[in-house]
Specification:
about 210 residues; alpha+beta; 2 domains; 4-stranded antiparallel beta sheet; 8 helices; about 15% strand
């Protein structure tokens, strides 16, 4: 049986530096998005707790009726499991937290916060408007730490596709840079976008 997530709240302020905080945020999102068997979920949390000893996490697992079935609390490298929906309702209202999936990110953060699928949908909705004023947001989100690595590749592909409706030196430079830095999946998307911008395909480096 796979774990059905209801949400999580994580406080990464106890980690030593920004790189660790970024790594922890991505690891949490990966775990939230993954298909994990229920019997293995506790050990996955224990591994995460050991790797990021200063983190505090509340993970809520839901039952068939979308009610909280179990509440896992990670603190000081230890994992505890509680059956307490009321406690979860208190926790998810905390202020200074990262990874709170119950809050809709403000518009200016919608491409870099929240679930990956929600980011992609928002990018598609905004890009359909074809407003040049959104270009800086697309480019900024491509460089966002939360969209980096393998976990964020589909978000980055959506962002590259969003640039296909516009043409500027800034866009061309970012696409060329992306082609150099990305793996095959994102490179394929950039090639498609480049075909829409006259002469850009010939400017892309060799794979």
């Amino acid at each position: 049986m796979l774990v059905e997530m209801k949400g999580y709240v994580a406080d990464v302020s106890g980690l030593a530096d920004d790189q660790l905080k970024d790594d922890a945020t991505r690891a949490l999102q990966d775990l939230y998005e993954a298909d994990v068997e229920y019997v293995r979920f506790g050990s996955r949390l224990e591994a995460l707790a050991a790797r990021f000893a200063g983190i505090e996490i509340w993970f809520a697992v839901q039952d068939e009726d979308a009610e909280v079935q179990s509440l896992y609390h990670v603190s000081k490298g230890r994992v505890a499991c509680l059956d307490d929906e009321e406690r979860w309702n208190d926790v998810r209202g905390k202020e200074s937290v990262l990874g709170n999936l119950y809050r809709v990110p403000p518009a200016e953060r919608a491409f870099v916060e929240g679930r990956l699928s929600a980011r992609i949908e928002r990018i598609q909705d905004v890009s359909a408007l074809r407003d040049p004023a959104d270009i800086p947001r697309f480019i900024e989100a491509l460089d966002g730490p939360s969209n980096a690595g393998t976990a964020g590749v589909e978000v980055r592909r959506a962002l590259y596709r969003a640039l296909a409706w516009h043409d500027s030196e800034e866009i061309r430079a970012r696409l060329i840079r992306g082609f150099r830095e990305e793996g095959p999946e994102a490179q394929e998307t950039i090639e498609y976008v480049a075909l829409r911008l006259p002469g850009l395909r010939d400017q892309l480096p060799e794979r």
